[in-house]
Amino acid sequence: MSLFDLFRKKPSMTPERLLDYGVFLRDLNKHCDELGIDRDQHILARVSRFLMFGGDLARGAAGVESVTPETDHLECAASLNMLTQGVHQMMMEKNGEENRQTAGYKAEWAKLWELTMASFFGWDVANPNVRGVAIMDLGSRLNRRLNAENLPLQQRSCDAWGNLLIGLNDQTVSEMGGIYAETVGWAKGNQPI
Description:
mainly alpha
């Protein structure tokens, strides 16, 4: 990374990007109202709550209970992968493709990821317990393998998050459940991760 990269400015806000951001806020706020999320919270906190809702929704639609201390590590890793894809998609919806290489984007992405993982799994990402370390390691390896070997599944996961943001209906719920089940199935069929 060059010194220039550290001080790279965000691309200027175009009318199209402003419109996209407005649509993102409208859709997010609609979910906030439906889920009882305070609109006065920081936007990352609202997005994180939406992601946690989506993660639970995907597990429920796949016929799997919420994450507990007894949940299988591989299922947790699949949830972690799906939530990671959700963070990618929400950041793209919020900031746009053109901002991905900026330092501010990466810092905001990391903050949203930490906030979501800590809340979804119930542990401190900065200082996780042994189980948390194992799940994060397995989830990270699963994410890398899927990115390398099954990019279409990862893209469908991002698309499913985008569709869920647009609207909660039978199709989007079924899509989320199907992606989660497919991720677990792929992980189990491609051991060791």
